[in-house]
Design goal:
The chain is of the alpha/beta class and about 170 residues long. About 35% of the residues lie in helices and about 20% in strands. A six-stranded mixed sheet has the order 3-2-4-1-5-6, sandwiched between helices. A hairpin with a 2-residue loop joins strand 5 and strand 6.
């Protein structure tokens, strides 16, 4: 079958138009959710009986470092447990981005609801050495991460949920 030159040109123009239209649609990011999870910064350990200590000087510096880490990420929501050290860790990020801190309870998280409530958002969650790895595990629906060492305040977990596919990673940010 021989196609005339004019018909071929019309078909090529249609194909190019179709490619341009399809390439302008960003399908991959429409349903993507990015969840970043960190442990609170270094806390004041001078009073071992204090169940709600504030950050020490090193922790205050780390809280400011987290601002730099998240500087180019347009966060939509920030979640924190209701403790001085977690709130103080994300307060600089909250102020920098003009986002209120939402209080959550690790023992009351329904991970499916959390994912649905934050669909398409970029979210930061701050918690504790014994809650953040398990929060990540709940999000990825897999027992993958272990409790963080009590002196480790440097882990940054990232969970991406895109088109029902979940990826996750762990970075050490010192």
């Amino acid at each position: 079958m021989v196609i005339g030159k004019e018909v071929l040109i019309i078909k090529m123009k249609q194909l190019i138009l179709l490619v341009l239209i399809l390439s302008s649609i960003d399908i991959s990011s429409q349903d993507c959710t990015e969840i970043y999870l960190i442990r609170h910064a270094e806390k004041d350990r001078s009073d071992i009986k204090n169940r709600n200590p504030e950050l020490n000087d090193l922790g205050k510096k780390r809280a400011l470092k987290w601002v730099q880490v998240f500087k180019n990420i347009e966060l939509d929501k920030i979640y924190s447990t209701n403790y001085n050290r977690t709130i103080q860790t994300v307060s600089p990020i909250s102020k920098e981005n003009n986002i209120d801190i939402l209080i959550y309870s690790p023992s009351k998280i329904d991970y499916e609801s959390f994912i649905l409530d934050n669909n398409g958002s970029k979210v930061l969650v701050v918690g504790h050495s014994n809650t953040i790895p398990f929060f990540v595990n709940g999000l990825i629906n897999k027992e993958f991460y272990q409790q963080i060492d009590d002196l480790n305040n440097s882990n940054l977990y990232k969970v991406i949920i895109c088109n029902n596919k979940i990826s996750h990673s762990l970075l050490y940010v010192n």
